[in-house]
Amino acid sequence: MTTQATTRFTNQLHTMKTQNQKGFIPFTLLGWPNADISFEIIKTMIDSGATGLELGIAFSDPLADGPVLQAAAVETLATGFDVDQAFILLQKVRAYNQDIPIGLMVYFNMILARGVDQFFKDAADAGVDGILIVDLPPEGAEEVTAAAKTSGIDLIFIVSPLTTDERLQTILKHANGYLYVVSRLGITGTDNTHDTQLQDLLTRIKAQTDLPLYVGFGVSTPEDAQKMIAAGADGVITGSRIIQLVQDQPNSSPQQVLETYLQSMCNLSE
Amino acid sequence: MQTLGFFGQYGGIYVCEPLMPALEELEEAFLKFSKDPDFLTEFQHLLTHYAGRPTPLYYAKNLSALWGAQIYLKREDLLHGGAHKTNNAVGQALLAKKMGKTRLIAETGAGQHGVATAMAGALMGLKTEVYMGEVDMARQEPNVFRMKLLGAQVHGVTSGSKTLKAAINEALRDWLANVRDTHYVLGTAAGPHPFPTLVKFFHQVIGTESREQILAQLGKLPDYVLACVGGGSNAIGMFSGFVDDTAVKLIGVEPGGEGLNTNKHGAVLAKGTVGVLHGMKSLAIQDKDGQVSDTHSISAGLDYPLVGPEHAYLRDIGRVQYDSATDTECLEAFHALSKAEGILPALESAHALAHTKKLAAQVSEDTTLLVSLSGRGDKDLHQVMSVTN
Predict the structure, then answer these.
(1) Residues 106 to 125 of A: which have CB under 8 A from any B CB?
(2) Do B292 and A61 touch (CB under 8 A)?
(3) A8-14+21-263 architecture in CATH?
(4) What angle do CA B146, B150, B154 make, to 5 degrees?
(5) Is A166 a catalytic site residue?
(6) Is A44 exposed, middle or buried (0-12, 13-18, 19+ CB in 10 A)?
């Protein structure tokens, strides 16, 4: 792990881990289905007690995303919501809550297009604490490490059931904040059958790092979440399910639709 | 990884973590088998006796008289399957078999790579599934039938542009989910390392043969070598035979669509900027935020907003010149070759021919132009007839 100023992720997630409290990080796509409702969705997440936020910027070719998030990205881009607007929305979220750790989940091309330094600066200015670049493995991390350090932003990395111990060492050289552990192979939000290797994987990672381990992919219910916790996770990340819930009830407010669900996900115990 | 596969600033590996072990495994297998005499003998045997290599180098006498230069055609259209794609599909399927994979997936634009992968899958007893955009399924329908008859399952892709870019997206998603037993037979010299290098390796026979054949026929190297460029696999294979012959001018021809002054083209090397998609850093047609655009070309096989990374590098160092031909110029060349020589070219290859015509008008009549005729036009009959009538 590189040393740098501690961020909200490092502080809060690590504190929770040492106190054996389990965390919940909900995901949504910035600007979906429009800027106003998106802000309402994020506010509901914060008010329901989310540990942190993972917010995506819509991309034309979201290779790691399943049908729900793909469709949401297409809808978002069709409204004309762009990266500038995403940063404006992020500022609004940060103004609403000073304390919650905010993570961005982006595809590398969007960072390149804005310029690596500029993107990280804009993210830091908007109150972002961590950035997970979906399609930048640790082999390419050098392209962003300087900008991340300068801006004080954590680089969040993915670990999968296929990641070897050797690869894990490479990832840990660059990883900060927490590790996003993929529960199974595939894309986001598809089926809920979990790879049996998860428990072994979490044990293997814990032997090498103190970073909090948050499990994502196929975590949509409190029952799923409890299974991940039982397998050794420090917390869970959920995305597609949240967008699906809002989609299913277009005439209700995000608060009405999501509050009960989010609260049930936030009350995780071992 | 042993290397990251950069060509200058282009190439590399830009994929989601779960794919990294598969790329490490593939690189290791490629490094091992590309030097393994038994593997190479087996590959060579299949190229000769199954695919029909060497393909002829044909002096197009009538077309030469018509256009005013000495035009030689490398007849990859005569390769089994009807296009150069068979070289790579057979090579990768053989590699997948050695790696113990039981399932092949592929993307296809024009359908030629899908057909080639379906053939290779049938030959080697590997279950084969092909992703193809629905727009391309409509315009290349004969190839959809061929894939099905060869035993492959064809998945229509309805997302985005419903063309090649979307098909690659879906194939990569499939690979993410099934990486343990599946090999992704990427169809062009693009994508994450080691694909650009590996695909070139299997296609370099085009350039090697062409060089030997022209020397045997003429006793000298050609003045120009031309090939169409979408992702750029036939071009990189052809150019690899001549890249060290600095006197030989190399020209890649991109799809100009309705013109480079419109947004309906696929001329990435002319209009693209540095970007990352489909696992590689290369040039891409994209907006200010890095959203990758939909392209347009009359030929499904060239309808792609990125390009193989080595082409971007060869452009930057000035070794290859890249031009474009419009849909209209492509059709004119299609008809010209058909009527002058009795050869129906693929619309992709007709782009290279269209530029050959322009070049022939500028050079002396004894100038030698070697053109990669990368595929045959049977798949395009429906589309050509519909715009011709």
Answers:
(1) 107-114
(2) yes
(3) Alpha-Beta Barrel (3.20)
(4) 70
(5) no
(6) buried
Positions of chain B with pLDDT under 50: none
Which residues of A fall within a CB distance of 8 Å from B14?
108, 135-137, 140
Over residues B109-140, the pLDDT tens digits come to: 999 999 999 999 999 999 999 999 999 999 89
pTM above 0.80, yes or no: yes
| Three-state secondary structure string covering chain A | CCCCCCCHHHHHHHHHHHCCCCEEEEEEECCCCCHHHHHHHHHHHHHCCCCCEEEECCCCCCCCCCHHHHHHHHHHHHCCCCHHHHHHHHHHHHHHCCCCCEEEEECHHHHHHHCHHHHHHHHHHCCCCEEEECCCCHHHCHHHHHHHHHHCCEEEEEECCCCCHHHHHHHHHHCCCCEEEECCCCCCCCCCCCCCCHHHHHHHHHCCCCCCEEEECCCCCHHHHHHHHHCCCCEEEECHHHHHHHHHCCCCCHHHHHHHHHHHHHCCCC
CB B161 within 8 A of CB B263: no
Q: What is the mean pLDDT of chain A?
A: 92
Q: Say if residue A197's pLDDT is above 90.
A: no
**Nearest 5°: phi and psi at B134?**
-65, -30
Task: Report how far Cα B98 is from the mean position of its chain's Cα atoms.
Answer: 24
Is A108 in Cβ contact with B17 (below 8 Å)? no
Whether pLDDT at A121 is above 60: yes
Read off the DSSP letter of residue B106. Answer: E
CA B211 to CA B381: how far, in whole Å?
31
| Helices A240-248, A254-266: crossing angle, 10 deg rounding | 150
- Spot the catalytic one: B85, B165, B200, B357: B85
Q: Which of B184, B199, B197, B205 is nearest to B47 (CA)?
A: B205
Q: Residue written as tokens 């071009």?
A: B235
Residue A3 has pLDDT above 50, yes or no: no
Tokens of A254: 């995000």
Q: Which residues, 6 or more positions from A269, have their beta carbon under 8 angstroms from its beta carbon?
A: A22, A229
Helix (H) or strand (E) holding B226: strand B224-228
CA distance B227 to B359: 13
pLDDT tens column, A74-120: 999 999 999 999 999 999 999 999 999 999 999 999 999 999 999 99
Three-point CA angle A129, A132, A137, nearest 5°:
140
Spatial neighbors of B253 by CB under 8 A, at least 6 apart, are: B226, B227, B228, B229, B322, B323, B324, B325, B351, B352, B354, B355
Q: Catalytic annotation on A54? A: yes
Contact state of A109 with B173 under an 8 Å Cβ cutoff: no
Query: Residue length, chain B?
Result: 389
Q: Provide the 3-class DSSP secondary structure of residue B73.
A: strand
B6 touches chain A (CB under 8 A): no
Q: What is the dihedral of CA A42, A43, A46, A50, to 10 degrees?
A: -30
